[in-house]
Write a structure and sequence with these properties.
The protein is an alpha/beta fold and 405 residues long. Helices cover 40% and strands 13% of the residues. The chain is built from 14 helices and 13 strands. A hairpin with a 2-residue loop joins strand 6 and strand 7. Bound molecules: pyridoxal-5'-phosphate (PLP).
Length: 405
């Protein structure tokens, strides 16, 4: 997810515009800022690029999720159904609004298994939150149908899938709201930042106030603004928005390179019949930030990972099953409900219960999965070498496994 790989003069120019005026904050200072409004400009560009009616920038993807949940009215005691494979930020946001993360299994799409979602719905369920992991999409038709049937909110965590789409709609714009992260390793980066996208004016107005201490942004100055509700400071700065503005203009270029490199790598790996690939609910909508592939067993996958490590080519190939950040198996802090500030007894009990369920169906998927991050700067030779080294490691592990058996 490498926007930072193609950083250059365009980003410096946008940042310099802000440095020239010295107005680093997105609100107020109308005179001294001399017409420079980078955050507003980026929000307009986001709406245009992704086909969303409204966009509210935030300080991070995490705060975008928190903001979206608050604006959608999700709070104390509400259950949010979410996948066992995501980044920790997804459940952090749920906890921060007082809600309960209900983890359910993923399938070979690496996203929510719709059947598992259906089984997890209770009278407390308020929201289903698919996470479009590793650049690609959840089965949105199936999830939208469940939400419609049970009158649930669908919130998309699209933080990792900027530029991906599902049946012609951009990921992040399909549910009641959707979020992107613009942190340093995302498809386009602001260094730190995020956005909530929505087609609902009321949700947008709430996001606008919530990210800025509840200001209604209608006063003659900030001191004259009213506060129709309590908010927080999840503002982005003009410097960060300036970087994002240069990056969003390069998005088509990033996506085209990703697609080309993804296709070439997939062609090389396809030589090995034992390698299978992630199932895509809409094959045309993959943003191609990662190529995710499966091996027949956990044992063979571990042998491949060990061989890639021995060859010095493991960086960029992610075995999420052992990763401390992305998969429930290693989320001990969540499973033990370790927080600095006390949760309510009700929330704590529910979290412990939810996070300690049986995830063997997810294990069966994740223990066999490797995701290879697609680089923007790879030369054809480097790509070929990477692919061939992976193929060699897989062939070695397969032949050793057949000898042992
Ligand atoms: C799926 C997912 N959700 C949320 C986030 C949080 O984004 P941020 O790092 O901008 O807070 C990330 C970041 O990696 C993510 O991958």
């Amino acid at each position: 997810m490498p926007g930072f790989e193609l950083w250059g003069a365009e980003e410096r120019k946008e940042v310099n515009d802000v440095l020239e005026t010295g107005i680093l904050m997105r609100y107020g200072f109308d005179g001294p800022r001399k017409g420079i409004w980078k955050s507003k400009e980026l929000e307009e560009a986001i709406c245009k690029t992704f086909g969303s009616q409204y966009a509210q920038l935030t300080s991070s993807g995490t705060s975008a999720l928190t903001t979206a949940m608050a604006a959608l009215g999700i709070g104390a005691g509400d259950e949010i159904i979410m996948p066992s494979f995501t980044f920790v930020a997804s459940f952090e946001a749920v906890l921060s609004v007082g809600a309960i993360p209900v983890m359910v299994d993923v399938d070979d799409t690496l996203t929510l298994n719709p059947e598992a979602v259906r089984k997890a719905v209770t009278s407390k369920t308020k929201c289903v939150m698919p996470v479009h992991m590793c650049g690609s999409m959840a089965d949105m038709d199936a999830l939208l149908a469940i939400c419609k049937e049970h009158n649930l909110i669908l919130l998309e965590d699209a933080c990792q899938s900027i530029g991906g789409s599902y049946k012609g709609k951009m990921l992040g714009t399909i549910g009641a709201a959707g979020t992107f992260s613009f942190d340093f390793v995302k498809t386009i980066t602001c260094a730190e930042g995020g956005v909530v996208m929505t087609n609902c004016e009321d949700v947008y107005i709430k996001c606008d106030g919530y990210t800025d201490h509840g200001h209604d942004h209608k006063g003659a100055d900030r001191g004259a603004d009213l506060h129709p509700f309590i908010g927080y400071n999840f503002r982005i700065s003009e410097l960060h928005a300036a970087v994002g503005l240069a990056q969003i203009r390069k998005l088509d270029k990033f996506l085209a390179i990703q697609k080309k490199n993804h296709t070439a790598l997939k062609n090389i790996l396809s030589q090995v019949p034992e390698i299978s690939f992630r199932r895509l609910p809409d094959p045309n909508g993959d943003s191609c930030t990662f190529l995710s592939w499966f091996l027949p067993t956990e044992e063979i996958t571990r042998a491949v990972v060990a061989e890639l490590k021995a060859q010095g080519v493991l960086p960029g190939n992610f075995y999420w099953f052992d990763n401390n950040w992305h998969y429930i198996r290693k989320w001990d802090h969540l499973k033990q409900s370790i927080t600095l500030n006390a949760l309510s007894e009700e929330q704590k009990t529910a979290v412990l219960q939810q996070a300690n369920k049986d995830f063997s169906a997810s294990d069966a998927i994740m223990s066999r999965c490797i995701s290879t991050a697609i680089g923007l700067l790879w030369t054809d030779e480097q790509l070929k070498e990477k692919g061939e080294k992976i193929v060699a490691a897989v062939k070695k592990a397969l032949s050793e496994a057949s000898v042992t058996n």
